[in-house]
Amino acid sequence: MEDIDKEKLPHHIAIIMDGNGRWAKKKLLNRISGHVKGVNAVREVITACRELGIKVLTLYAFSIENWKRPAEEVDALMGLLKEYLQKECEEMVQNNIRLNVIGRIEDLPPDVQTTLRETMEKTRQDDGMILNLALSYGGRSEILHAVQGILADFQRGKVKPEEITVQRFSQCLWTRGIPDPDLLIRTSGEFRISNFLLWQIAYTELYVTDTLWPDFDRQELLKAIADYQSRERRFGLTSEQLNGREE
Ligand code: IPE
Ligand code: IPE
Ligand code: MG
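A: This is the predicted complex of the input protein with IPE.
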């Protein structure tokens, strides 16, 4: 059991759940079997985060770029998502978990959109943890969407250029109201961001593990949190300033 400090937990954990395809390949299975197995890891990590008292968990489940994958794989992923939400909704309510979605929801198949809206509605009052699902998500699109909103407000005379601060811009993103991630985990060893939360990760601690997503479990999560807790987050300051030992 990893030793973690319950007083220094990350408030918001974001995860790039990568490696389902490689997991399946290693086992000589098709890619879709990897996604099916990946759902178990999703369930385990959500439960573990809730038990630990993590306040926001953002999961990158499907990127805008992922639409370019073979239709069969895209259909299977959409089917798994719908099935997951239908099966887990009751459990989410019991565990006080609120569902939120970031991304171009309008791109998703209509039945999936309906299930998402129903689940968000049923979990609306829950305040134990926010499960923030990134679906048809892209960081660049999110930023452009915010810029378009601000320009529309400018044209209507509702905002002046000098009023557009970092705080105000953040409130125009799909993640409005949600604090930036403290810890970003990527499974499967790739050192890249793949268009995830580009604006929000300015000062996020990054953790990359070689473990493939279907093998990621509670223990792996604790390892990532322990690593996070060993870091000094300086936000541009000096170590001495942070420790109150400024000469
Ligand atoms: C992550 O696993 C799941 C999604 C992107 C939807 P991948 O399907 O990307 O798995 P690899 O990267 O091919 O191993
Ligand atoms: C990132 O994984 C997207 C999700 C986990 C949903 P990808 O597998 O799509 O990323 P790349 O293609 O390796 O950058
Ligand atoms: Mg991948």
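The mean pLDDT is 97. Residues 8-138+179-230 form a domain with the Undecaprenyl pyrophosphate synthetase fold (CATH 3.40.1180.10).
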